[in-house]
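Today's session is about reading a structure prediction critically. Students often jump straight to the picture, but the first step is always the sequence itself: look for stretches that repeat, for charged clusters, for runs of hydrophobic residues. Only then move on to the predicted structure, which in these notes is written as discrete structure tokens rather than atom positions. Here is the chain we will use throughout the hour.
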Amino acid sequence: MKVATILAGTEVEASDQVVRETVAKWRTWSSANSVTLLNDQGFHFKVFPPEIHVDETGLAGQRGHRAL
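Below is the predicted structure for this chain, in token form.
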């Protein structure tokens, strides 16, 4: 909630959806900036839209992926 409030620039209500969307947007911005910097240095990355992975225990990663 604190991170979402700081990133949104306004107090956010206790809503998991708002917090998830705010953090996902920040992740998109920071990932895109990082990929751009690395691609400019000769690396080759592809960026895909963010996904929130959940299972019966809550937030989860995806098996077989090296990074999210």
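Discussion point for the tutorial: The mean pLDDT is 76.
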